[in-house]
Write a structure and sequence with these properties.
By secondary structure, the chain is mainly alpha-helical. It is 54% helix and 8% strand.
Length: 626
């Protein structure tokens, strides 16, 4: 689901404000107390000692100021050695061991052709702006954002000590190379098609065909992947293009681009001048008015870099007792409703129904928190940026070590306090962190209709439906990219999807900035299916209860409560800047359309609120995929 939002002027340091942000704020305040206590009492226990030391180094602004750019000096020194294409490749190789993704990125990926295997995946990367269109297009506010970005690049080079003229020249070099990369990159809509980003060319293909001039042997050896031969790339042409760029750009320009990548990554971890300058860009993209207080940024750092240590106290306090069992029951109820739906679906033929049911039956779910906590075996000192560097390297090594090993189905991609959830198509697995399973989304004392509407529909049903959206439906029960659809059913699925694409393409994020119906199709299908299926799950559950749950609460019927709870989960105010950025680069529709765009397609909504036929919220034509 990836609910990537921040908030509006309500508190000035957030770019959106609503139910999700209220839960997030509450989590942050709780974790702050945990971390302050841990920092004040080192030696209490190993977990507290570690998270306490990490937080203490982050919060110590004087020490951060004093350290200056010392923590990133080793990275800059490597870049200074670039004098031709070969030394540029060496610098890229070094930066990748530090997880600075200049030009491209490397990581583990399940082989789309055989999901039991973890292979190496190379993907496009290396832009400072959110998507290639920011470099190449002129629609909406893109030209303004580009201008702010270029001025920001100049200032960052000035902070590094270059005079105005030299800084401008460096910034121009970095931006020119980024623009060249943007031209080579795939756009977000192309990337929704798994076939477009999966090319098993292997090491041989890279070395012999795609980019022979790049020293792949040395590159892989330095990432501790010297024996790895199974490699997929997003687009072979991209790597040919990069190899060419390394040969054609002047060494000084390559140094500027690589330096920019390091500064862009590390500015938020350096002294005040750097942090403030990094915030200029964040402000432009999110509408954030003020920099969040340091403690909040530090809580997020500990969560991002030592998440499964910090998460332990969160789970103890906020997800205890039978919370997990109740969330599991709700998950089972929603999955069961999908099974009933699959049995009765008129547009699906039996040849497709079989594998669809198999996919649903094999769908796994992780609830709340991991059964086994991860270790973080790296030293934590008093230098904050150096700690971030160590944590980053450690996590990268952990990720790359997965390559060539069997798939670990229990490795979480989110930490327990995260107010979010996800579905992973290659694992056919959904994950619901404890942070999302909190009031007002989920609560022991809540009317069941509220838990079904908000968590059942908005979270569980949504994630489950991702297994069957325009992207997820291309993977089979075992996570292989394999077409299990009959031709005629696929065509009907395509027509139903097009209805959703057309519907959302008409909506505006802010006046004159329309949503991209194709970019948001998967999330919109998941929203619509989730709410519809969890409603069926609720009705089925209600039918089996004796005594039946309370019918009316504060003047609302329980059916009305169901839809109200869903809508409230997306009750959210967002800055126009963030709404615009979302429309340009985020696969989710803005919150208001996650409510109204979904409700107009719900067969249960009109009867629940006694809306006359063909009124605004019950249009004659409703889109329905699931
Ligand atoms: Zn989603």
């Amino acid at each position: 689901m990836r609910r990537l939002h921040e908030d509006r002027h309500d508190p000035a340091d957030r770019s959106s404000w609503g139910a999700i942000q209220i839960v997030t704020k509450d989590n942050e305040e709780f974790l702050k107390k945990v971390l302050e206590d841990a920092a004040a009492h080192p030696g209490k226990d190993p977990v507290a000692t570690k998270i306490g030391a990490y937080y203490a180094a982050c919060i110590d602004e004087d020490a951060v100021e004093k350290a200056g750019i010392t923590p990133i000096q080793p990275l800059l020194d490597e870049i200074a050695k670039v004098k031709d294409a070969a030394t540029a490749a060496q610098a890229v190789t070094f930066l990748h061991t530090e997880n600075v993704s200049a030009f491209f990125a490397i990581g583990p990926t399940q082989d789309y052709g055989d999901a039991t295997k973890v292979i190496a995946g190379l993907d496009q990367a290396g832009l400072g702006l959110p998507e290639r269109k920011y470099y190449l297009e002129n629609k909406d506010t893109i030209p303004r954002t580009r201008k702010v970005y270029q001025a920001h690049q100049v200032k960052m080079f000035q902070l590094l000590g270059r005079d105005a003229k030299a800084a401008k020249a460096s910034a121009d070099n970095a931006f020119r190379i980024e623009t060249a990369l943007a031209r080579l990159q795939q756009d977000d809509i192309t990337r929704r098609d798994p076939h477009a980003i999966y090319h098993r060319i292997d090491r041989e293909g890279l070395e012999k065909k795609v980019a022979p001039s790049f020293p792949w042997g040395d590159y892989l050896a330095k990432q501790n992947l010297g024996t790895v031969t199974a490699i997929t790339v997003n687009d072979p042409k991209y790597y040919t293009g990069i190899a060419k760029l390394l040969g054609s750009e002047k060494p000084a320009a390559l140094q500027d681009y690589l330096t920019w990548m390091v500064l862009n990554d590390y500015a938020p971890e350096l002294g005040k001048a750097w942090v403030d300058e990094a915030f200029v860009m964040q402000k432009e993209l999110s509408g954030l008015k003020e920099l969040p207080p340091r403690w909040r940024r530090c809580v997020h750092h500990v969560d991002a870099e030592l998440g499964e240590l910090l998460g332990q106290s969160y789970v103890k306090a906020r997800f205890a007792g039978d919370s997990k069992a109740r969330a599991v029951d709700l998950t089972k109820a929603v999955l069961a409703a999908m099974r009933v739906e699959l049995d009765g679906l008129a547009w699906m033929d039996d040849a497709t129904r079989g594998p669809a049911k198999q996919k649903l039956d094999k769908m796994a779910y992780l609830v709340g928190y991991p059964d086994k906590w991860r270790n973080y075996d790296f030293a934590i000192g008093k230098d904050f940026a150096a700690n971030v560097r160590a944590a980053t390297k450690f996590e990268l090594a952990r990720q790359l070590a997965k390559i060539g090993k069997p798939v670990d189905r229990f490795d979480w991609e989110m930490t327990p306090p995260t107010v979010n959830a996800y579905y992973e198509p290659t694992l056919n697995e959904l994950a619901l962190p404890a942070g999302q399973l909190q009031p007002p989304f989920f609560g022991q004392a809540f009317h069941p209709a509220v838990n079904f509407g908000s968590t059942g529909g908005g979270t569980i049903g949504h994630e489950m439906t991702h297994g069957f959206d325009d992207e997820g439906s291309q993977f089979d029960a075992d996570g292989n990219l394999h077409d299990w659809w009959s031709k005629s059913t696929k065509q009907k699925f395509g027509e139903a999807t097009k209805c959703v694409v057309d519907q959302y393409s008409k909506y505006e994020a802010v006046p004159k900035v329309r949503l991209d119906g194709k970019l948001t199709a998967g999330e919109n299908i998941a929203d619509n299916g989730g709410v519809k299926l969890a409603y069926e799950a609720y009705k089925s559950w209600r039918g089996k209860q004796s005594p039946a749950p309370q019918k009316d609460v504060e003047g609302f019927s329980d059916d009305q409560l169901y839809f109200l709870a869903y809508a409230q989960s997306w009750c959210e105010k967002v800055t126009p800047e963030l709404l615009t950025t979302m429309a340009h680069s985020n696969p989710h529709s803005p919150p208001m359309w996650r409510v109204n765009g979904v409700i107009v397609n719900q067969p249960g909504f009109g009867p629940a609120f006694k809306c006359p036929a063909s009124s605004p919220m019950t249009p004659a034509r409703q889109c329905s995929v699931w």
